């Protein structure tokens, strides 16, 4: 009901002559989980940063439900309903989990600064609603008991969950997860897989950037595989697992091995 | 008792006024620092506020309140004008650009004789500023800072300060947030300049130079940039200390400098962080230990 379709068409990015993304095109279908995989340095995170507007794309086009997204600064991309998590977890370490997640409600606040300063009743109500929504999000992610803990004191897996909670607090229509399983143990990965299925069930489009091909195979409907800034394979998880190009990218050629 | 209080005010009213005035400037900087803007534009903003308000009262015959408002507004406009290009700069470059602004205003004040009185300055300004004006201004600014910090705006600013990539990704327009804080900072410093001008009978270009800007930065930094009371504590401390050290003119500057260095070295969170250390001492220790173990493991 809420998920949007992301279309990426021949986007490219160079950093001072070094080609990070050569030409990548793919579609993340609405309300599906699409996986973006590839070895280190294949251009996954650069692609994500171009979608979210952190880097302007040198070429190509990005659209959400057919409406162009290319060239919008990050806060406008967020306002279009795109939320993300970060590969190298970026929480505000000296603030509580609840405060971190509540930052995600920023775009939901409609009252002006003057209304805030005048302490109009609507402002307090808006704050209470935002807090209530964040608390129930934390409960859904089974970290409700950590609401008052400083984010910097959390375990690794919990920090990842808080990042996802913060992204969900923005009421996203497209959620980008950047290597959410990095550094997780087996049982944490299982829980993460459940969580991603749950997010999909709520109708949000998910683009999952991941190293771990097992996790990606479990939760995605469609996979795009990158290497050296180009797309080398695309298909269902089963097709990708048997694709010679993917096996070569991950394991190397026969001669080399 | 009341006689004692009135005598106290009579003897120390100058110092009290100065403390309040410096606190006001301190809060102006506090707003800028809350989004990591180490601004040296304070002197320039204060000069704009001071000269404009004096021109309004002495040449145009404005009542006091509108004159102060006009001065503050002009400083806010100045902040808006330089903010757009300057806020794109980072760290050192931002500081240099804001310093340049203060210098440009000072040089204009030095040379625009017909309005500013040039190097001689302006004498016999009517003394309109009362202690309660200053106290009211400080109270209003504290209320504004307190209310904003607890709102979505304050959350956004805290995120901008710590990690602007995160702030942007959550939909915060980082540039507009920093610009509005910079303009607010300009407004407050301009109002402080206007109040100072009508307190001291005299203004000259030398009153609003680099020293003024650096002093203004030390108030919130010494007091603590994370605590709401920080600028107040810092300004009172910095204003009273030279008075307390009057017994030795030579030692005064040295002691003052040494204290500033000591606070920056041993209390990087400012004087207000002493309270946090005492309350959360044990927990802070645990956190450090946890972070160290985590680093060792990874």
**Based on CA inertia axes, which overall geometry of chain A fits?**
globular
Number of strands of chain B: 0
CATH superfamily of the largest domain in chain A: P-loop containing nucleotide triphosphate hydrolases
Major sheet size, sense and barrel closure of chain A: 6 strands, mixed
Provide the CATH architecture of the largest domain in chain A. 3-Layer(aba) Sandwich
Separate helix tally of chain B: 13
Classify the oligomer: heterodimer
**Class from helix and strand fractions of chain B:** mainly alpha
Kindly report the spatial arrangement of strands forming the biggest sheet of chain A: 6-7-8-3-9-10
Strand fraction of chain A: 15-25%
Q: Uncertain spans of chain B, ≥5 residues at pLDDT below 50?
A: 278-298
- What share of residues of chain B is helical? over 70%
Structural class of the helices, strands and pairings of chain A? alpha/beta
Classify the helix fraction of chain A into a percent range: 25-40%
Largest interface: A-B, 38 and 27 residues
Task: Note the main attributes of this structure.
heterodimer, A: 257 residues, Rossmann fold, 2 domains, six-stranded mixed sheet, 10 helices, 23% strand, globular, B: 298 residues, mainly alpha, 0% strand, disordered C terminus
Question: Could you walk me through the main structural features you see in this protein, from its secondary elements to its overall organization?
Answer:
- The complex is a heterodimer of chains A (about 260) and B (about 300).
- With about 260 residues, chain A is α/β, with parallel strands linked by helices.
- Chain A folds into 2 domains: about 1-80 and about 170-255, P-loop containing nucleotide triphosphate hydrolases (Rossmann fold, 3-Layer(aba) Sandwich); about 90-170, no CATH class.
- Chain A has helices at about 45-50, 75-80, 95-105, 115, 120-140, 155-170, 185-200, 215-220, 235-240, 245-250, and strands at about 5-15, 20-30, 35, 60-65, 65-70, 80-85, 175-180, 205-210, 220-225, 230-235.
- In chain A, α3 (about 95-105) runs parallel beside α6 and α5 (about 120-140) crosses α6.
- Chain B is mostly helical and about 300 residues long.
- Chain B has a domain at about 15-205.
- Chain B has helices spanning about 1-35, 40-60, 65-85, 90-110, 115, 130-150, 150-160, 165-170, 175-200, 210-225, 230-245, 250-265, 275-295.
- In chain B, α1 (about 1-35) packs across α6, α1 (about 1-35) packs antiparallel against α9 (about 175-200) and α2 (about 40-60) runs antiparallel to α3.
- The chains are: A alpha/beta (about 260), B mainly alpha (about 300).
- The interface of A and B includes residues 79, 84, 104 and 113 of A.
